[in-house]
Amino acid sequence: MFEGVEALVSEHAELEQRLADPSVHSDPALAKRLNRRYAELSAIVEAYAGWRQAGDDRAAALELAADDSAFAAEAAELATRQDGLAERLRMLLLPRDPNDDRDAIMEIKAGEGGAESALFAGDLLRMYLRFAERAGWSTQVLDAEESDLGGYKDVSVAVKARGSAEPGTAPFARLKYEGGVHRVQRVPVTESQGRIHTSAAGVLVLPEAIEDDAEGVIDPNDLRIDVFRSSGPGGQSVNTTDSAVRITHLPTGIVVSCQNEKSQLQNKEQAMRILRARLLAAAQEEAEREASDARRSQVRTVDRSERVRTYNYPENRISDHRTGYKAYNLDAVLDGDLGPVVQSLVDADAEAALAATAEGGDGA
Predict the structure, then answer these.
(1) Computed from CA positions of residues 99, 100, 106, 112, in that sequence, does the dihedral angle turn out positive or negative?
(2) If you ran DSSP here, which 8-state letter would residue 158 be given?
């Protein structure tokens, strides 16, 4: 039923032996890569062992039921348990996004709506920070351009898991569905007549590049680094030194700037983190374009320019336009209770993957 799982079980055992070797941990990048793969396989091995054990116990219960009918009920319970484990194992064996075990960098940009859009971008940032806190992740604002009336014209934040995350629970695996245009409907603070306005903010979610990524190694000769004086809302000087940094990656034309820190060195480090993430995403998008036969889920291929979600304040309603999810607890969602919304997207992605797998099996 689960062809190829035994090979994964053997790989898991080999990884366990390698990770027990102290010499492996002298190379942090290698140890981290092996630990990620071990964590991924551990969930599969556990589900597979449980499925097999439930099957063996059910067979024994059915054999005993021939002499004692009381065992028939136990056999039925074990069949239900085995079916549940089989479903979990099928989900774990689905083709995975290779970035799902990564941390994430989120960029939130004000869009249509001027000052109201910037305020909404600030609301989105707060929502994601609260959601990350509930998930046990750490966050760090890498760069922020504040608006005159509050909120943000542009803000970048890194979201990092503490320790090794279980498969499907790392920051990028959960936050990648947030990419797109988010629309808000409410009465702006600047509206004197109480009319409802619609504005929008854009969200971009990038997998953070790690040490063993080829894209994580950047040739210094490919960079142009400019420094300038940081400035805040209204043009007021944040400090009197040229601490802000703008980095241009010459081969791709990607430009990243950071002015959040008072130190030029810190701003450069933050800008390089964002640049690595953008280069990684660009390289992977190019690979996906070239591999036209690669599986693409219904959720994940939604163009980032499309509207993905609406936040309606008068009705306290949140609506996701990709899955049809709708709830009337907008206040709770904005306070970080984003889990059910994200789960609806995870489930839709899994269903699409199962359907694609089934079609592939039928066509074999």
Answers:
(1) positive
(2) E
Q: Could you give the CA distance from residue 60 to residue 74 in angstroms, rounded to a whole number?
A: 10
- In whole angstroms, what is the distance from residue 357 CA to residue 266 CA? 46
* Alpha-carbon span 11 to 5, nearest angstrom: 10
Strand-pairing partners, residue 225, are 247
Write out the two tokens for 273: 């983190």
Quote the CA–CA distance of 112 and 188 in Å, as a whole number: 13
304 pLDDT tier (thresholds 50, 70, 90): very low
CA angle 334, 340, 344 (to 5 degrees): 125
Tell me the three state secondary structure of residue 23. helix
φ, ψ for residue 151, nearest 5 deg: 75, -165
Q: How many residues does the chain have?
A: 364
Beta strand pairing call for 152-160 and 326-327? unpaired
Mean pLDDT of the chain: 84
Summarised one tens digit per residue, pLDDT across range 79-104 is: 999 999 988 888 788 777 888 888 99
d(CA 178, CA 180): 6
Q: Which of 69-78, 177-186, 284-293 has the lowest mean pLDDT?
A: 284-293
Contact 320, 309 (CB under 8 A): yes
- Compute the CA torsion angle 81, 12, 287, 281 (nearest 10 deg): 90
Alpha-helix residue ranges (DSSP H) falling in the chain: 5-19, 28-65, 70-92, 115-135, 171-175, 264-290, 330-334, 339-363
d(CA 351, CA 337): 23
Structure token pair of residue 274: 């964002």
Backbone φ and ψ of 76, nearest 5°:
-65, -40
Q: Are 292 and 232 in contact (CB under 8 A)?
A: no
Q: What are the E-state strand segments in 119-179?
A: 138-146, 152-160
DSSP-assigned beta bridge partners for residue 317: 312
- Report the C-alpha gap between 158 and 251 in whole angstroms: 25
Q: Which residue has the tokens 């190379």?
A: 27
Residues 6+ apart with CB under 8 A from 66: none
**Coil, strand or helix at 30:** helix
